[in-house]
Write a structure and sequence with these properties.
It is a single chain. By secondary structure, the protein is α/β, with parallel strands linked by helices. It contains 2 helices and 3 strands. A 3-stranded parallel beta sheet has the order 1-3-2, with no helix packed on it.
Length: 77
C-alpha cells in the first residue's frame, strides 16, 4: 500500500489525464512471493476516478482523444 500512497502524491502533483496501472498482482501471482497488491486495492484508493476497461493490451492516444479529467485505463493482460 505504501507504493499506492506514493502514487497518489505524484498523481496530485502531476494531474495526468490518463493513468495506466501496470504493476499489480494478478490471479496467477504467488502471494507468498509477490509483494504487489491487486488492482482492486489501487482502484479503491482512486475511488471516484473514471475507469475505462480495454479489450486490448495496447492503447493509441493523441492530444485530441485524451479525456479532460484523469481517467484510469485498464488494458487487458
Amino acid at each position: 500500500m505504501r507504493v499506492i500512497h506514493s502514487f497518489i502524491q505524484q498523481h496530485q502533483l502531476l494531474q495526468p489525464r490518463v493513468v495506466i496501472p501496470s504493476h499489480f498482482r494478478t490471479a496467477t501471482s504467488d502471494p507468498n512471493n509477490c509483494d504487489l497488491t491487486g488492482l482492486d486495492d489501487f482502484l479503491s484508493v482512486m475511488e471516484g476516478t473514471p475507469v475505462r476497461w480495454s479489450g486490448s493490451s495496447s492503447l493509441a492516444a493523441s492530444a485530441g482523444n485524451l479525456p479532460h479529467t484523469t481517467t484510469i485505463q485498464i488494458l487487458s493482460v
